[in-house]
Design goal:
By secondary structure, the chain is α+β, with helices and mostly antiparallel strands. 55% of the residues lie in helices and 20% in strands. The strands form 2 sheets. It has a 5-stranded mixed β-sheet with strand order 3-4-2-7-6, covered by helices on one side. The protein is rod-shaped. It starts with a helix and ends with a strand.
């Protein structure tokens, strides 16, 4: 039995309708899947952002606490320095005025009498002995200077003073008068004894 043309048209229309419904259903399911994927991704990104914000908030809290501790430490340090300065100011005594140190007076040989026994070592020859005697006699505090002995470059002179004179002044006068350096070996004003020595020339 053969189908009529009208029956064939109905079959085609039904097939097209079924295909259209299937396509529409497929599109809806695809849209649902895509929307679900987008939502999942959005939730994951939101979770990451929230976690990052929480970590950042924790770091800020630590910085704030650290800054507050630094402020406390600085305040305590300032108080300690202030207390130390105040204690030092109270306990410090005013410096005592410096006392001028007077130069120690060198004992002087007394003038007059029998004079001073002066022994001079390392005399540079007879000419040097004469220069030594002249230098002594030219000193304004000296009354006389007599050579008593000269042997082995050592001379003994009887020195009589007209004014008190220290051993250092006598040595300086001889150095100035002879141009040769001389120093005091021994000075005993109480015993009227003086020992000088010429320094070797450089």
């Amino acid at each position: 039995m053969n189908d009529t043309p009208s029956d064939a048209d109905d079959v085609q229309e039904r097939a097209a309708e079924i295909i259209a419904r299937a396509l529409a259903q497929g599109l809806k399911e695809a849209e649902v899947i895509i929307a679900a994927d987008r939502e999942a991704r959005a939730q994951a990104a939101t979770a990451q952002i929230i976690d990052a914000l929480e970590q950042f908030s924790k770091v800020l809290d630590r910085l704030v606490a650290f800054s507050e501790q630094i402020g406390i430490n600085l305040n305590e340090l300032a108080l300690s320095v202030s207390a130390l300065n105040e204690s030092h100011t109270r306990g410090a005594a005013p410096p005592a005025p410096a006392r001028p140190q007077l130069p120690e007076m060198e004992p002087s040989f007394a003038p007059g009498g029998e004079g001073i026994d002066v022994t001079i070592g390392a005399v540079p020859g007879f000419q040097g002995l004469m220069e030594l005697q002249r230098a002594l006699v030219r000193l304004p505090q000296v009354q006389s200077a007599a050579v008593r002995r000269y042997q082995d470059d050592e001379a003994a002179i009887q020195l009589v003073l007209s004014q008190p004179m220290a051993a250092g002044a006598i040595a300086e006068g001889v150095t100035a008068g002879t141009g040769r350096r001389i120093f005091v070996d021994e000075a005993r004003p109480e015993a009227l004894r003086l020992r000088l020595r010429f320094l070797p020339e450089e």
